[in-house]
Structure formats: C-alpha cells, structure tokens
Amino acid sequence: MKNRMARLEDKSFVSEEHPSVTLRNLAKKWGVDVESDEFVKNMDDQDPLRDYRAKFCYPKMKDLPHTDLEQVHPEDDCIYLNGNSLGLKPKSADAKMLEALNAWGTL
C-alpha cells in the first residue's frame, strides 16, 4: 500500500497510514514479530523521548500507601497514572527550590 501524505495548514506532513500498518512495517523491517519483546526493545531504542524518563523521580512500590509488598518488588518504580496532579517531580526541582529559597533569604 502506498504511503499517502496529507499537508496540514502549518505545512507539516503526517502519514495517513493506519498506525497498525506502520507498526507491522517496522516489525517486518526489523525481522521480528510485532508482539515480541524484540519489537518492544527496538521501539524503545527508536523513541526520541527515551532519555526524558531519567529526568524525573519515580516513587518506589514500597513508598506507596496501601501496597501489599508481598505482591510486588518493593524497589521497583511504580507506574504513574495520576492525571490529577502536578505530575512526577523533575529531579532538577530540588536545585531550583534551593535557589529560590536562597534568593528569598537575600532580599
């Protein structure tokens, strides 16, 4: 199937190809099954945002309330799905807060 492109008002291009077709084509290119661990690893390796995860603090399972520690690995990162919050704390926030406190103290 020919990959058709659509021009948007901002002159960028998007594929009209269904995402499942794109994923199957990638799996074929890599010589793996789309549902395999190898496919997942390849997708992770290609993700341009893969390095951003390391910029945030992830709570450990042992730190969550109401967690049965016999059912989880206590040192594993939790899966963060809270959409009603500020989000995960950036690791850079501590230094920024200290900078703001120091500036406040010198007013």
TrEMBL record:
Molecular function (Gene Ontology), one example: pyridoxal phosphate binding
InterPro entries (UniProt xref): Kynureninase, PyrdxlP-dep_Trfase_small
Top-level taxon of origin: Eukaryota
GO CC term, one of those recorded: cytoplasm
Keywords, sorted A to Z: Pyridoxal phosphate
UniProt KW Transcription regulation keyword: no
A biological process term (GO) from this entry: L-tryptophan catabolic process to kynurenine
Name of the protein described by the UniProt record: Uncharacterized protein
UniProt source species: Ladona fulva
